[in-house]
Specification:
The protein has about 160 residues and is α/β, with parallel strands linked by helices. The longest helix is centred in the N-terminal third of the chain and has 12 residues. It starts with 8 loop residues before the first helix and ends in a 6-residue tail after the last strand. About 25% of the residues lie in helices and about 20% in strands.
Length: about 160
Amino acid sequence: MNEDLTARPAVQRVVQALVEGNSEARVIVLAETARTAEDAAASLNCELGAIVKSLVFRVGDQPVMALVAGDRRCDTNALPSALGLEGKAKRADADMVQTATGFTIGGVAPLGFPAPLPMVIDTNFRRFAVIYAAAGHPHCVFGTSLDELMRLTGAKSDGAIAI
Protein backbone atom coordinates (compact mmCIF):
# COMPACT_ATOMS: atom_id res chain seq x y z
CA MET A 1 0.00 0.00 0.00
CA ASN A 2 1.71 3.16 -1.23
CA GLU A 3 -0.87 5.69 -0.05
CA ASP A 4 -0.28 7.53 3.24
CA LEU A 5 -3.47 6.54 5.04
CA THR A 6 -2.76 8.94 7.90
CA ALA A 7 -3.34 11.83 5.46
CA ARG A 8 -6.97 10.83 4.87
CA PRO A 9 -9.47 13.32 6.35
CA ALA A 10 -11.18 10.71 8.56
CA VAL A 11 -7.85 9.61 10.06
CA GLN A 12 -6.80 13.24 10.48
CA ARG A 13 -9.95 13.87 12.56
CA VAL A 14 -8.81 11.10 14.91
CA VAL A 15 -5.27 12.49 15.05
CA GLN A 16 -6.68 15.95 15.82
CA ALA A 17 -8.96 14.58 18.57
CA LEU A 18 -5.97 12.78 20.15
CA VAL A 19 -3.87 15.97 20.01
CA GLU A 20 -6.70 18.10 21.43
CA GLY A 21 -7.15 15.51 24.20
CA ASN A 22 -3.44 15.74 25.13
CA SER A 23 -3.00 12.08 24.29
CA GLU A 24 0.35 10.63 23.34
CA ALA A 25 -1.42 7.89 21.36
CA ARG A 26 -0.40 7.66 17.73
CA VAL A 27 -2.20 6.16 14.76
CA ILE A 28 -0.81 2.78 13.75
CA VAL A 29 -1.15 1.82 10.08
CA LEU A 30 -1.59 -1.92 9.71
CA ALA A 31 -0.55 -3.98 6.70
CA GLU A 32 -3.71 -6.07 7.12
CA THR A 33 -7.24 -4.85 7.65
CA ALA A 34 -8.73 -4.14 11.06
CA ARG A 35 -12.28 -4.04 9.66
CA THR A 36 -13.44 -6.53 12.32
CA ALA A 37 -12.25 -7.08 15.88
CA GLU A 38 -10.89 -10.47 14.84
CA ASP A 39 -8.92 -8.92 11.97
CA ALA A 40 -7.54 -6.20 14.24
CA ALA A 41 -6.45 -8.67 16.93
CA ALA A 42 -4.70 -10.83 14.33
CA SER A 43 -2.99 -7.80 12.75
CA LEU A 44 -1.84 -6.49 16.14
CA ASN A 45 -1.03 -9.94 17.56
CA CYS A 46 -3.07 -9.18 20.69
CA GLU A 47 -6.00 -10.69 22.52
CA LEU A 48 -9.42 -10.19 20.95
CA GLY A 49 -10.67 -8.54 24.16
CA ALA A 50 -8.14 -5.71 23.78
CA ILE A 51 -9.90 -4.51 20.63
CA VAL A 52 -12.47 -1.72 21.04
CA LYS A 53 -15.60 -2.26 19.00
CA SER A 54 -17.18 1.17 18.37
CA LEU A 55 -20.81 0.16 17.87
CA VAL A 56 -23.46 2.66 16.82
CA PHE A 57 -27.07 2.08 17.82
CA ARG A 58 -30.14 4.23 17.87
CA VAL A 59 -32.51 4.67 20.76
CA GLY A 60 -35.56 6.23 19.13
CA ASP A 61 -34.03 8.74 16.73
CA GLN A 62 -30.95 9.33 18.92
CA PRO A 63 -27.68 7.77 17.70
CA VAL A 64 -25.60 6.38 20.56
CA MET A 65 -22.33 4.51 20.81
CA ALA A 66 -21.25 1.51 22.85
CA LEU A 67 -17.52 0.76 23.17
CA VAL A 68 -17.36 -2.98 23.74
CA ALA A 69 -14.44 -5.39 24.14
CA GLY A 70 -13.78 -7.47 21.03
CA ASP A 71 -14.59 -10.71 22.81
CA ARG A 72 -17.96 -9.45 24.11
CA ARG A 73 -21.31 -8.48 22.63
CA CYS A 74 -23.32 -5.39 23.48
CA ASP A 75 -26.39 -6.11 25.59
CA THR A 76 -28.85 -3.94 23.69
CA ASN A 77 -31.44 -4.41 26.45
CA ALA A 78 -29.10 -2.77 28.98
CA LEU A 79 -27.82 -0.01 26.68
CA PRO A 80 -30.65 2.58 26.94
CA SER A 81 -30.70 2.60 30.75
CA ALA A 82 -26.87 2.74 30.88
CA LEU A 83 -27.15 5.97 28.88
CA GLY A 84 -30.13 7.32 30.81
CA LEU A 85 -32.41 6.96 27.80
CA GLU A 86 -35.81 5.35 27.31
CA GLY A 87 -36.74 3.04 24.47
CA LYS A 88 -35.18 0.11 22.67
CA ALA A 89 -31.69 0.09 21.21
CA LYS A 90 -31.50 -0.96 17.59
CA ARG A 91 -28.47 -1.26 15.33
CA ALA A 92 -27.93 1.93 13.34
CA ASP A 93 -27.84 1.61 9.57
CA ALA A 94 -24.77 2.64 7.55
CA ASP A 95 -26.22 6.08 6.78
CA MET A 96 -26.86 6.87 10.44
CA VAL A 97 -23.36 5.64 11.37
CA GLN A 98 -21.81 7.90 8.71
CA THR A 99 -23.94 10.92 9.68
CA ALA A 100 -23.47 10.53 13.45
CA THR A 101 -19.74 9.72 13.47
CA GLY A 102 -18.35 10.95 10.16
CA PHE A 103 -16.84 7.49 9.65
CA THR A 104 -17.82 4.51 7.54
CA ILE A 105 -18.41 1.08 9.02
CA GLY A 106 -15.12 -0.79 9.37
CA GLY A 107 -13.17 2.27 10.52
CA VAL A 108 -15.48 3.90 13.09
CA ALA A 109 -13.32 5.56 15.71
CA PRO A 110 -14.63 6.32 19.22
CA LEU A 111 -13.76 10.03 18.83
CA GLY A 112 -13.48 12.76 16.21
CA PHE A 113 -17.23 13.05 15.58
CA PRO A 114 -19.02 16.05 14.05
CA ALA A 115 -20.99 16.38 17.33
CA PRO A 116 -20.85 14.52 20.67
CA LEU A 117 -22.72 11.24 20.99
CA PRO A 118 -24.11 9.63 24.15
CA MET A 119 -21.54 6.91 24.80
CA VAL A 120 -20.92 4.09 27.24
CA ILE A 121 -17.81 1.93 27.59
CA ASP A 122 -17.46 -1.67 28.68
CA THR A 123 -15.46 -1.95 31.90
CA ASN A 124 -14.16 -5.36 30.76
CA PHE A 125 -11.27 -3.42 29.19
CA ARG A 126 -9.69 -3.19 32.67
CA ARG A 127 -8.14 -6.59 31.87
CA PHE A 128 -5.69 -4.90 29.48
CA ALA A 129 -3.01 -2.25 29.93
CA VAL A 130 -3.36 -1.27 26.26
CA ILE A 131 -6.53 -1.38 24.19
CA TYR A 132 -6.82 -0.63 20.47
CA ALA A 133 -9.52 1.37 18.74
CA ALA A 134 -10.21 2.12 15.09
CA ALA A 135 -8.74 5.37 13.79
CA GLY A 136 -10.96 6.30 10.86
CA HIS A 137 -9.85 3.71 8.27
CA PRO A 138 -9.96 -0.12 8.18
CA HIS A 139 -6.13 -0.22 8.27
CA CYS A 140 -5.68 2.34 11.07
CA VAL A 141 -5.90 1.95 14.84
CA PHE A 142 -4.53 3.65 17.94
CA GLY A 143 -3.51 2.19 21.27
CA THR A 144 -4.60 3.71 24.58
CA SER A 145 -5.76 2.74 28.07
CA LEU A 146 -9.31 2.41 29.37
CA ASP A 147 -8.88 5.46 31.60
CA GLU A 148 -7.53 7.59 28.77
CA LEU A 149 -10.24 6.45 26.35
CA MET A 150 -12.88 7.35 28.93
CA ARG A 151 -11.29 10.78 29.35
CA LEU A 152 -10.97 11.37 25.60
CA THR A 153 -14.53 10.30 24.78
CA GLY A 154 -16.47 11.26 27.89
CA ALA A 155 -17.97 7.76 27.81
CA LYS A 156 -19.85 6.50 30.84
CA SER A 157 -18.34 3.39 32.38
CA ASP A 158 -20.64 0.37 32.62
CA GLY A 159 -19.85 -3.33 32.80
CA ALA A 160 -23.50 -4.29 32.36
CA ILE A 161 -23.58 -3.40 28.65
CA ALA A 162 -21.37 -6.33 27.63
CA ILE A 163 -22.23 -10.01 27.60
